[in-house]
Every structure is written in C-alpha cells, then in structure tokens.
Amino acid sequence: MDYIERRKIFNKMVTFMRQSGVKYKAFHIEKKHIEDIVEATGKLSKQISVFIREHYDFLLSFDLVKIYYDNGQVELNKILSTLFNAFLPRVEFRKVKPSDYRLFQVADMICTFELLKLKIQNHSFSKSEQIFFGSVNDLKRNYLKIVKRQDIDH
What we know:
Blueprint: H1 3-20, H2 37-54, H3 56-60, E1 65-69, H4 74-87, E2 91-95, H5 102-121, H6 127-133, H7 136-148
Parallel strand pairs: 1-2
C-alpha cells in the first residue's frame, strides 16, 4: 500500500477521533534523563496521580471508568492499575487487541501525534514523516491543531 492510501486511511481515523468527542491526556518522560525503572515509575506515577487529582470530579461523574490496555509495558500497567484503583471507586481494566477497538486505535494515533510533537521540539522530524505529513507546518496545521482540541486540558 502506498503512502497516499495509508494517508487516506489515517485521515479517516483523524475524522473519527474528532467526531467521537474523545478526550485524552498524554504523559511522557525522557528516558535519557532516567537512571532506572524505579525512577521512571516514580515520575510517571507522579504525573498520572496529579492528573487524577486535578480531574477527580470529572472522573467521578462516570458510573464506571474503563481502562483499555494492551499490556504492552508491564510497569505502566501496574502504575495505571494501582493509581486508578486507589483514587476511584469503580474502575475496570480490559485487555484488548488493538485491531478490535477503534477507540484504542485512536489512542494509539494520539500517542503517535504526541511523539511527533516531541520530535518537532527536538528537531528530529524524519524524511519519511515529511513524505507522509508534509512539512512541520503542514503537520501542525492539518493534524496537531485538531488533536490539541481533544486534549482534556484544552
């Protein structure tokens, strides 16, 4: 499949994300500044717990908070389970296959956009990304601006 066909499919996912009304919050740490897994776990736990506290009333407004996760990173799974179960009364974790859930695919796409934002900040936007998205300004205008509206803090 050529990049034009892939971009058409990708654009349909972006449209689905925008129309779904999904909100997200992305967390990241820079591995080059992390000594070990304990430090990484601590930094991510802190970011996520601050988010939960700041959005506590919003999260409580749901009868049940469902977290879909593919068990890709064991430590992250432990962090999510520990924090969400500690702070919220009704949490359900579901292991998923990404191909089975469109919203999970949207979450994966949002993570891709968040990584692209970091690459832009670090001036490491690749040639293949330029071919797919166009210039950095094209990416910002056509995609990142749309995704930013979905950020829960926007």
